[in-house]
Amino acid sequence: MSELDQPVTVRPSDRHSAFHRLIGWEVVEWTDGRAVMTCPVREEFMNRGGGLHGGLVATLMDSAGGYAALGGPPKDPEAVDGRGVTLSLTVNYLGTARDGVLTVTATRTGGGRSVAFVSIRVEDDKGTVIADGVGTFRRFSGER
Question: What's this model's pTM, rounded to 2 decimal places?
Answer without folding.
Answer: 0.85
